[in-house]
Amino acid sequence: MARENFNDLQAFVIVAREGSFTRAAAQLGVSQSALSHTIRALETRLGLRLLTRTTRSVAPTDAGDRLLSTLTPRFEEIEAELTALTELRERPAGTIRITTAEHAAHDVIWPKLAEFLPNYPDIKVEINIDNQLTDIVAERYDAGVRFGDQVAKDMVAARIGPDMKFALVGTPGYFAQHPTPRTPQDLAEHNCINIRLPTYGGLYAWEFEKNGHALKVRVEGQLIFNSAEMIMKASLAGLGLAYLPEQMLADDIVAGRLIKVLEDWYPTFPGYHLYYPSRRQSSPAFNLFVEAMRWRG
Question: How many CA atoms lie within 13 A of 226 on its CB side?
């Protein structure tokens, strides 16, 4: 059916329901003469008179009654569905798929997500913890989370965490048996717990900085993980030195279970950002998720 026919049928229903061209025209936002022309054109196309007009009232003919009884429930169904869509907008729903690094998932995303989800029971969030830079478009993720300097220029990025530092730590027991390192080069004499990151093409070279001088050190040790959580467990067990986000280690440092060393060599890294394609058609659920994750400073 052409859109003009649909509009004409809707006009007929409103006129028949209101029993007045004046009230129907006001409801439709058109002039009475334009509405009268619309109804006459509809009657001409159908070859039937649909309305009986008098100086005081407008009433459907037998043909008009039949058409009205057919159209009314269908228009009501359409109105109900439009109302349901409005409610869907007001009560956002859908699944949001995110890929993120392990530390960001634990310390940045999770605390905010735990507050966000109870308020939106129809929103589902799937989080994939992955330490490599996943192609979120090819893998059909809605968004990714990485350090700000790792986000491609063609992506929209929203900061979700502050700038951060890494800390180099070991247990008191470890340092009772090994000398405290004074420079990053001293790490060659220590049992260091490595992390394998596909993004860096293998083992991550520990990054240091002092007085504007940047230094990367490749360390050796008995253990290699691809999990920051496992590195922390191993370090707490006294099995070596760990180089991890300071926020992740804060409780153990305060409690004295871990001791920081080489503190004047810690560089600052850009904070975590949530990123997604600039051409992405954002849903209400996704927009709410982004705002919930956004770092407020």
Answer: 12
Separation of alpha carbons 38 and 32, rounded Å: 10
**pLDDT tens by residue, 90-148:** 678 889 999 998 889 999 999 999 999 999 999 999 999 987 777 888 888 999 998 87
Beta bridge partners of 272: 147
Give the model's pLDDT for residue 199: 63
**In Å, how far are 30, 178, 225, 239, 252 from 259, measured between CA atoms?**
78, 13, 21, 14, 9
Tokens of 128: 């994939």
> 0.70 cut: is pTM over it?
no
Tell me the residue ranges of DSSP E strands in 101-154.
123-129, 143-147
Rg (CA), the chain: 33
Query: Do residues 14 and 64 lie in contact, with contact meaning Cβ atoms separated by under 8 Å?
Result: no
Q: Which residues of the chain have pLDDT under 70?
A: 1-4, 83-90, 199-201, 279-281
In degrees and rounded to multiples of 5, residue 85 shows phi and psi of: -65, -40
Tokens found for residue 86: 């409005």
Q: Which DSSP symbol is given to 163?
A: -
Question: What's the CA gap between 131 and 101, in Å, rounded?
Answer: 5
